[in-house]
Known about the structure:
The protein is α/β, with parallel strands linked by helices.
Amino acid sequence: MEExxxxxxxxxxxxxxxxxxxxxxxxxxxxxxxxGKTRTLTHRIAYLCAExxxxxxxxxxxxxxxxxxxxxxxRLDGLLGPVxxxxxxxxxxxxxxxxxxxxxxxxxxxxxxxxxxxxxxxxARTEAGDDPTAYTALLRKQGLVDLDELLTLxxxxxSEDRALVERYRDRWRWIFVDEYQDVxxxxxDLLRLLSPPDGNLCAIGDPDQAIYSFRGxxxxxxxxxxxxxxxxxxxxxxxxxxxxxPILAAAVQAIAPSSLVRGRRLDPARLDPEAPLVGxxxxxxxxxxxxxxVRTIDDLVGGxxxxxxxxxxxxxxxxxxxxxxxxxxxxxxAQAAPIVDALARANIPxxxxxxxxxxxxxxxxxxxxxxxxxxGLEGGLAARVRLAGQVVAERFATPTLDxxxxxxxxxxxxxxxxxxxxxxxxxxxxxxxxxxLATGAEVDALDPRAEAVTLLTLHAAKxxxxxxxxLVGVEDGLLPLxxxxxxxxxxxxAEERRLFFVGLTRAQDRLYVSHAARRTRQGAERECTPSPxxxxxxxxxxxxxxxxxxxxxxxxxxxxx
Length: 561
Ligand code: ATP
Ligand code: MG
């Protein structure tokens, strides 16, 4: 546990301190990338609890992904110690689930209701045909709710029951929402019910990183915060601690044409005069682009003959960079394959991260059902997941028995591997495990300590930072993304530009952008031009890499031994 007390705010800069120690009432923190939003948010909660005698159980901290919620929980534990356990930390969906569990009867649900999985939904859809009410009735008859209903049902319940609203307002007197720019209509309704207009609601976010409108998020809620909540206090954080000055300058220029933040400022806290410019590589082809990534990584990390295998150290000294410091970002998942192949050929370890939900993977639903229904499984949760996997796989080895859906044994094996980290994190709490699964726990192929290059989409990169970032496929048609032959509207292009901004601002020390002159899309090879987004950036901020002599990556066999 870190030291609490006056020292708590010492680790913040002046504006972060203003935000963290602001009095109660509505508070909006508008903060650009790398300005320390999570740091400020967690310190505010810790400060309120440790210094102002706010009870942790009166605090509710909401984020959008389970990963972000875990990160918040982890940081709060670090700042406050065991009392942090009393703070409610979760996603909007887990919050909805809590409210429904506590009010199942009032919501017309059985005590033991559960969230419909894919098989349940498919069955209900087949039986109900086109009739959406019949569909819901079928789910209800089996004590099931749909994922969407984790939010719509609590909103309906609270809208009709003033006393219930007051009870929750009394319980969660302090509410904190991270990434507020991503709220959608129903999440917003829920927040307005839980927080009175003059309540202690602290919303934090960056409108210029709003990248989820395709999922119904509406940055408009962020922009009109001060109309919705009385006498809202506004704090801006402008100091970016993450990126070198050239990277930050490029990012600020890139977002300028469609910034949603009036008078946006992002001042670099890092002013190293030696900081490298943004690398730009015009590749002849996708293969050439992948080769550039491999070559550059090879140069940055250096030959392995000097490296000990597991620590990224030379003779006990820390080397400048290791594979875990590097990320390759792209707009669409389809772009990953050539990069993965090229890295694999060079024996560079990779880990891919996606936004896929565990519950959507084949085999996962069957295992979850087995866990729920078979009482006889023994041991810790991870062991029970393994056993349930065996039971499911065996059932498929006996084709007279009903398997409950088409799952192959290898799917089951993969599913067990994917579920194990979640099972470990949930300790022995089966209910927690199942509810996290149901509310969208992501496939977690990412180990933050892994000595591997991370590959991820721009959407999945949100909130993260890496010393070295490659942003590949910065081409018209991919960024902004557009189907060949179609014209996206202005709003869609603006959102793509924000996505570009998110990508650029993940980089701490080195950033490389590349574009290929030819690329296969929709089955046809096409000529590509660089993204128009690059035009907003001064040429002087780029260091252009020519089509250098291809060099063979250094031998990495050592690593495999
Ligand atoms: P994003 O919008 O990308 O999510 P963010 O605003 O959440 O960014 P953080 O990830 O919290 O930013 O912080 C960015 C980096 O800056 C982190 O490495 C963090 O430790 C560091 N940082 C933040 N505030 C300070 C500070 N006052 N002093 C030193 N480092 C800081
Ligand atoms: Mg953040």
